[in-house]
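User: Structure with NAP, tokens only please.
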Amino acid sequence: MPNKLHRILILGGTAEARELAARLADEAHFSPLTSLKGVTRTPSKIAGDIRTGGFGGVDGLSSFLREEHIALMVDATHPFAAQISAHAVQASKQSGVPCLRLERAPWSVQAGDDWHQVADIESAVQAIPAKARALVTVGRQVVAPFFAREDIHVVARMIEEPDIGLPSHAELLLARPPFSRAQEKALMQEKRITMLVAKNSGGDATYTKIEAARALKLTVIMIERPDKTQTTTALNVVEMMGLIELTLS
Ligand code: NAP
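Assistant:
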């Protein structure tokens, strides 16, 4: 790698994005700039430069890449953030700035799991039987359709409060992962949960709820990821560092 300083745009909002920013900031020839949508009220500390807010669609992102002399963009957004990833692919084509994807592996069914796999939030809402007591862990931005089901009891866990009111048949648990398997099992027992609703986020931080559901023989309604296969993808930061060096060499 030559001695040139490479400006790397990281589309962030995940632990992997933070980890990548720290690794790049440690290298003399990289200057990381992390972009956040700005929805989290208390974001974790990130190495290197930070900007917040949308770019204004594909054209806005393309202009940003050119104006900020970005050498390479890493889409390290959450597996369920579909729009920004699609914009990254198109903006990369428009601007000629290469785009790589950093995405942790999804969870897969293990012996003892009872998964009902669905494609999206709406299908997950419909898959819950009447009178169920569902632990819903999908995030505050998409919890509304679960609250609309008046024939079930919803225990909604999320990091920050949703912008919508809580109906009488729902409870809110505000908590930030990680949680131990014992904590997850105790919660499911205490709340008499009959099924878990989860996004297939992958990673270790929230896997204990899947293990707890397995131990208690509960069905998991697993919302599978949107397809983001158009981009060259690394599953972890070490792999990504190699891909970046290769792409810029
Ligand atoms: P989204 O639906 O894919 O994106 C909606 C719009 O938000 C984009 O078109 C873009 O606006 C802006 N945006 C999203 N991520 C951005 C970023 N990193 N930097 C600048 N602008 C961004 O995204 P989402 O599902 O609302 O997720 C928002 C952020 O939260 C993402 O960065 C993601 O990594 C993080 N997150 C999401 C989830 C999830 O389950 N969806 C979970 C954990 C963290 P413009 O079109 O104006 O550029």
